[in-house]
Amino acid sequence: MKVGIFGGIGSYLSYLVWNNYNSNQVELYSLNTELQNEVVQNCPSLTSYRPPAFFCGFLHTVIPTISRPKEKHISFLEKLGDTGISVDFVDKGQSINSNQPLLLIIPGLTGKVQNGYVNSLITQAHQYGFNNICIYTYRMLSKEANFQFVPPFQDYGIDFQGADKEYFRDDVVAGQTTRVDLAADLHFTLKYIKDKYQFKQILAIGCSYGGVQLGNYLGRFQEHSYIDAGVTVCSPHNITDCERNISTIMDLTMTYILRRGLKINKHLFDDPKNYPQQWKPQISKAMKSLLVHQFDMYYTSQIYGYKSQVEYYKHFSSCERFQQITIPMLCIAAKDDYAVNIKALSLNKLLSNKQTIVCLAKSGGHIGFLEGLNADSTWFPKPALEFLQYFSKEQEMEFKAQ
C-alpha cells in the first residue's frame, strides 16, 4: 500500500517536472505581429526558458544573490570629472574597439561588477561576442557625489510651465534651484563615452530601477538619445503600483538597500554648501526609515525636486514615457517577482509603442530567472543579448546600404 502511495506521488512529481520542461514558460506581447515574429525567429532563447521545477520567485531572487560568482571580472573605473558619475569598463585591457557596439548596463540599487546578476550578464555577454562592456554608476550611489553639478540638457523634455508643473516644487519650477535629473546625467554620460571612444552603436540593458531610468531617458530624449536598442529587466515601470503592491519582506529589504546607498554619501549633507539651500532632505529620518515610501518622502523626492514621494512616483514612472521611445525595446518580467508586482508592469502602456515587445515569464523572481535542473545558469541575459545583437546587426546593415 505504501509503495503504491509513494509510487503515485513520485509519478505525479515526475509528471510535473516533465510538464515544466515541455510547456511554454513565457508569454510574449506586442502590437506589432511582424516585429514579434521577426524577433522570435532571431532570438531563440526568448521562448526556451526552462526554470527548475518547484522554484518560487523568492528562491529565484535569493539564490543568485548569495551565490559566489562563477567568474571574476576586472573593472576599470573611469570618473567623469568631479561630477560623482562614473562608468566601470569591464575586462577592458587594451581591447576597446569602437567598431563594435558598446553594451551599457544600468543596474538597480545593488549593481556592482561582482554582484550576482551583473556578473552573469557580463559572463554571457562575452560569450555572445560583446567585448565593450561598461557598468553605469549614477551620482546617487557615489561617495563623491557632486550635488551642485548641473549637466547640459538638464530637464530636457520636461515642461515646467505645462503638464509637468504639478509634480515639482515651486522653487524648481521657478528656476530658483536645481535638482538631480537622472535622465540628464545619463545623457551626459553617454555623450562623454560617445565623444571619447567613438562607438558607432550603444546598446543598453536596464535592470530594476536602472530600467526605469532607461525608459525615462529614451522617452524624454527620443531621437536625440545615444542608445540604439534597449532592454529592461524586472523594472517597476509604474512606481506607484509597485509601491502599493510590494511584499512586506521586499519593502523592508529594499529600504535597507536604500539606506545603505545613502550611507555612502550622507556625509556630504553635513555641510549645507554641498547642496542647494532649497533642498530640505531629512537625512536622519531617511536613515531610520523602514519602508520605501518613507525613505522617498524624506530623501529621494527632495533631491529630485518633487513635491512629495507621491508626485515622484507618478512622474518618474517610465510607463508614461514609452509611447515616445523611438528605438526597439524588449521588456522582460516575471509573474512571481516579489519586488516588482506584475501590476507595476503597466502592460498596456508599454505596448502603446509598436517597437516594444514584452516577455512575461511564469516564474523568475526579481532578476533571478534560474534555469536547468540544477538551477546552475541564468536565463534572462540570453534573450536580452540576442535581442540587442539582432538589432545591432540590422542597423549596421541599414547603415552600409545607405
TrEMBL record:
Pfam families: Abhydrolase_1. Keywords: Hydrolase, Serine esterase. GO terms for molecular function: monoacylglycerol lipase activity; short-chain carboxylesterase activity. The keyword Ribonucleoprotein does not apply. Residues 181-372 form the AB hydrolase-1 domain. InterPro entries: AB_hydrolase_1, AB_hydrolase_4_CS, AB_hydrolase_4_sf, ABHD4. This is AB hydrolase-1 domain-containing protein. It comes from Paramecium octaurelia.
